[in-house]
Every structure is written in structure tokens, then in C-alpha cells.
Specification:
With 50 residues, the chain is mainly alpha-helical. The chain has two helices and no strands. The longest helix has 18 residues, at 6-23. The radius of gyration is 13 Å and the shape is elongated.
Length: 50
């Protein structure tokens, strides 16, 4: 369907980049293989998670 505005596309891409940084362990205090701290970080940032 595509994006309706540049701002929506930009926010979506930022979300992808944050998730990749978390997955690769590039966030301070969140280890690369530490699933519990990754889930806690995502819940705190986005208000969603396991």
C-alpha cells in the first residue's frame, strides 16, 4: 500500500533501525543475546512486548 507521508515512512524506518540496534547489542545495557533485557527495553520504548 505504501506510505501516505514522508513523516510516516521516516518513523517506520527509525523503528526498524532501533530494532536492528537492539538485536545486534548496540544499545547500552542491553546485551546481544539477553532476550529478557531486550524485551524490557522494547516494552519501555514502545509500550509493547512479551
Amino acid at each position: 500500500m505504501g506510505f501516505f507521508s514522508f513523516a510516516t515512512a521516516e518513523r517506520t524506518l527509525q523503528g526498524y533501525e532501533v530494532m536492528n540496534m537492539v538485536r545486534k547489542g548496540q544499545i547500552r545495557g542491553v546485551g546481544k543475546g539477553d532476550i529478557l533485557s531486550q524485551a524490557a527495553f522494547i516494552t519501555g520504548m514502545f509500550g509493547v512486548g512479551a
